[in-house]
Amino acid sequence: MFHHPEIPRLAVIGFGAFGQLIARHLRHHIPVCVCDPVMRANDLPQVDLEDAARCHIVVLAVPLSRMEDVLHQIAPHLSPGAMVVDVASVKIRPAQMMQNILPGHVQIVASHPLFGPESARDGLDGHRIAWCPLRGSGHRRAAALLRRMGLRVLRTTPDQHDREMAVVQGLTHLVARGISQLGPMPDRLTTASFRHLVQAAGMVGADSPELLRTILRENPHAAPVRERFLDAAAQIAEDLR
């Protein structure tokens, strides 16, 4: 990576809950600035999209519905050798958009931190991040930084990621939302397995409707997995009649 004393080396575009989590941990390792239409109180440099795009590493922490527009806006301002990294919960579609829209002189990594503000509230140590290098070699240094921060960097492809996340996230959110609609859960006569189930549901229960749509609708492998699960549940119910 290059360094210029007047330009922060990393920009986080999108300063919602996850963007704030990223910035909070990265700022101890690299100069960080943030860009978001709604600027929340913080002590980091706040910049517009053009200035964010001029940084050496640009992290896209925006909803998937906004990503294409943001990519078009930053594309003309990205420097040769700059690296763009997305953190969306699905990988096939963001990978395609970044490769199609961003200029050839830009390095690209599709990533998915397998944790959130709730699960990482006590720190990043031991948490995992899916890592899909798409263009350039700078991903190795970036991955080394993440390892120094305590993360387990798991290299994969966008397709393999989405296949696994169709089960890991797709079913977790489906079951969690189903449980949440049943009303208050028992909290006195409980088993350890039930408490783990309720805890898991609570960890994703606060996720936004936008994130739920991304996980369940934007992953091309999610619908078949969901249908198999619901068919299996229906068959179990039928067998008990």
The CATH architecture category of the largest domain equals 3-Layer(aba) Sandwich
Report the principal-axis shape.
globular
Q: How many strands? A: 7
- Strand composition percent: 5-15%
Count of individual domains: 2
**Physical arrangement of strands within the biggest beta sheet:** 2-1-3-4-5-6-7
Q: The CATH topology of the largest domain, please?
A: Rossmann fold
Please compute the radius of gyration using only Cα atoms. Answer: 19 Å
The overall pLDDT, averaged over residues, is: 91
Structural classification? alpha/beta
Domain Prephenate/arogenate dehydrogenase: 8-241
InterPro entries: 6-PGluconate_DH-like_C_sf, NAD(P)-bd_dom_sf, PDH_C, PDH_N, Preph/Arog_dehydrog, Prephen_DH
Protein name: Prephenate dehydrogenase
Keywords: Oxidoreductase
